[in-house]
Amino acid sequence: MAEIHPFRALHYNPALLPDLGSVVTQPYDKITPEMQTRYYALSPYNLVRIIRGRQRPEDNPQDNVYVRAARDFRAWTQNGTLISAPQPALFVYDQEYDVPGQPGTRKQRRGFIALCQLEDYAARVIHRHEETLSRPKADRLELLKATRAHFGQLFMLYSDHTGTIEATLATHAQAKPWEQVTDEYGVTHSVWRVTDPGTIEPVVMAMRDKKLVIADGHHRYETALAYRDYCRAQDQRDPRAEYVMATFIRMETDGLTILPTHRLVHSLPRFDWLQFAAEARTAFDWEDVRMQGLVQEWNSRFLQVLGRAGHDRPTLGAYAGPGKLALLRLRQDFDIDQMLDKLPVTLRRLDVVLLHRLVLERLLSIDPEAVRAETNLSYYREFDVAAAQVEKGKAQVCFVLNSTPVNAVRDNALAGQVLPQKSTDFYPKLLSGLTICWLDNPAGL
User: Fold this and answer.
1) Where exactly are the structural domains of the chain?
2) What pLDDT is recorded for position 59?
3) How far apart are CA 430 and CA 422, in angstroms?
4) What are phi and psi of 355, to 5 degrees?
5) Res 141: pLDDT
6) Which ranges of the chain have pLDDT less than 50?
7) What are the backbone angles phi and psi of residue 244, rounded to the nearest 5°?
8) Domain 261-402 belongs to what architecture?
């Protein structure tokens, strides 16, 4: 049973900081060093200083990033930079965006922000769909311990074929937004505060029979679980630590967009393109592809070719430098069921699973532990950016993927089957800093 609750969100004070765009950020794991520098320059109160802090000349060298984050956060709550909403509320959250790679296609994705009661995966109320990495969870746990606040939002999917919950909240999204900002990707984020008990209670009740799938934020969810267990182990049964902040979005909406996350392989003792091609042909139909011009000029065309080729069977792209571009389509006579007989049938023909189990593990001998540790692997949303790393000699080969369908995410998650990490990239991201869940809010949650 999914339990959600309205809450008194902490938020930026518009009287002191009317330009919301100068203080909110993309999620912490999407912030590149270049973005971090730009966020720092936008405002001394930009949230990056807390969620991705770094040493400054004026800082005590004995303080670590978590100590500084807690100190800044505490100061901002005391000086009025961050203030608490006066009443518990649900928050309608709309995002209007252009779909990357599809010129002229603009979508709207609507959800709502609330607190979600934490549940162990074994309870089969909240389901993960991806594996996680240990390093980000350790980092986020230290930040949560230091600040006792959730700054970013989990992205939860729920099923509601009739759209009743969305329609109930939509009536409150007709007035001027409570918050509105356009981010660096041209996405317009609008938030409305809903405090009417006559609206909140039906939504809370309707969500109780829902199963939830984590679309984005697996590391943050497992960090929240770890912090809950930490509090319990300290004999501090803290009811506030039993909840996490999340945005809930209907699976059936046509506003969902899933982008692929491409893999960059590096630091192998040896990689030979021709040898790899020969070995790959045992499982794949190999097709060399010729593209004219620089990689930045043809990458969108290659992604279209990849999409068409993957229409009827699993297909990967591979790029190892100029003149080394290929499509790998699973051979129709290849017995993938025997090769991956230990995997559930629902996973065996997913592009990202074949890449990890067949290509990375069997052809390139990168074991799962090395994948989890990111010893030989890095992840990129933009194929041309990843390909540039290959051309600079910083990686040996880039594997290009089609996006994972949302029904595959849903069906495998509900069945308890987990995809490889970063199998999906739900776009756009939920901004950090629109609402903050402060466990020590004097006004209460």
Assistant:
1) 4-257+427-438, 261-402
2) 64
3) 16
4) -60, -45
5) 94
6) none
7) -140, 155
8) 2-Layer Sandwich (3.30)
